[in-house]
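Quick illustration for those who missed Monday's session on complexes.
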Amino acid sequence: MSYEKLRQRILQLKDQKRAIILAHNYQRREIQEIADFTGDSLGLCRRAAETDAQYMVFCGVDFMAETASILNPDKRVLIPDTRATCPLANMLTARIIKDAKRKHKEGAVVLYVNTTAESKAEADIICTSSNAVEVVNALEQDVILFGPDWNLAQYVKNRTRKRIIPIPSYGYCPVHQYFTVNQIRELREIYPREELEVMVHPECSPIVQSSADFVGSTGKMLERPASLGKRIFIVGTEVGLIYPLYKRHKDKSFIPLCHDALCKPMKLHTLRKVYMALKKERPIVKVPKKIAAEARDSIEAMLKQKTAKKDTSFTIHDRTPFNTLS
Ligand code: 13P
Ligand code: SF4
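Prediction with iron/sulfur cluster bound:
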């Protein structure tokens, strides 16, 4: 089937089945173009909580699709490729959390949304990289068990008076971990200083974060260029973000901090797999009821927090096929 035909079939099936497609900012361009909503994990969480669609095709990694399913127990959440799993999320187990809770009884458990449903069931509240600092600061407790990303934990630690205890002692994202200060230095030498802004994700190491001009979630990076007079942006996150940045800010230039920064699990979803998922109505994401109920409490605790209200997800309204982009 030709690319254009595949797109048309997906759009038809979507209408027929009252389905929506949610896509993370790192998805392939052709998937972002066909999605109803594209965004960071917080934006997608909020969209999943609000939709009245019967089916949701979730193009992201498994913890994101699980979150959508937990928030919508009566709806069908489809994931085009079930192998799309986040290694960072898998670094934290319910056992590690239980042990940490026993050791620090006074602490609150704040978990990054990049966690399995079993881990979320052990949390007091969930956060994303968009709202982690606000979520932590709004809690009564002064001791926070925070996981699984050690770098995000350090980012929060530098912006709060509370004691942050990372669980596990060293969790990391294999994509963001390998950005270096030298990469930033080399690019700063090439471009004029007054026109350049270096943006990195809080999953990067603290030294990379402190060498950047701006640290934020993918949603915040997407908004940043509009508020600055600068013209050239170095993007320290997964390379997929370059496309929505370009779509939103066509008058600016975006350069990946590293061209190899690729989250392979995110890229497992293809248009063909989206089509098959819609057609066959599977694979369906399933979370055991008891775990889902406990995990829902911690996700809803985040969604209820006033500080988490802002939604940075958006739709790429012009569906120009990716291969015709100039
Ligand atoms: P965002 O919340 O910024 O979209 O990040 C999710 C993620 O997995 C980053 O690697
Ligand atoms: Fe997980 Fe890293 Fe991929 Fe984000 S970029 S989904 S944290 S592996």
